[in-house]
Amino acid sequence: MPILRLFSLEIKTYENMTCKSVNYELNKMIGSKLLRVRQRTDLSQQNVADDLEFSPTTYSKLENGKIDFTATRLDQLSMYFCVNISDFLDPNIETPRLLKDMKYPLDYKEIKAERDLLRELVDLQKKP
After folding, report:
1. pLDDT tens for residues 27-80?
2. Is residue 124 one of the residues assigned to a domain?
3. Residue 92 lies in a domain
4. What is the 3-state secondary structure (H, E, C) of the chain?
5. Which of 8, 14, 63, 112 has the highest count of CB atoms within 10 angstroms of its CB?
6. Residue 24 belongs to a domain with what CATH number?
């Protein structure tokens, strides 16, 4: 029995280490994106930390991926920098996009109106 118990402890330790390494990679990715966003705005770490009421050390650790990002903190940062929050989590996007530069899907009514106009144009072209 002691061998079996020791074996299960080793598995649990391994699983926790795996989660930590995944969190570490995610934190590094988000932190590097946060750094690029901050540099794009020409703000210092101190400026951002003061504005968001973080300690400068905490903000530095965020950019270096040494602190876990909570959903609340990520939302706060994305609102501060006016960037798309999901871009922080997308590995295919290097620097989060500014909200003002993003194109949002059109409203259903707008799509229907555009479709109807296109149909009218096609019908007009068909007529001799």
Report:
1. 999 999 999 999 999 999 999 999 999 999 999 999 999 998 988 999 999 999
2. no
3. yes
4. CHHHHHHHHHHHHHHHHHHHHHHHHHHHHHHHHHHHHHHHCCCCHHHHHHHHCCCHHHHHHHHCCCCCCCHHHHHHHHHHHCECHHHHCCCCCCCCCEHHHCCCCCCHHHHHHHHHHHHHHHHHHHCC
5. 63
6. 1.10.260.40
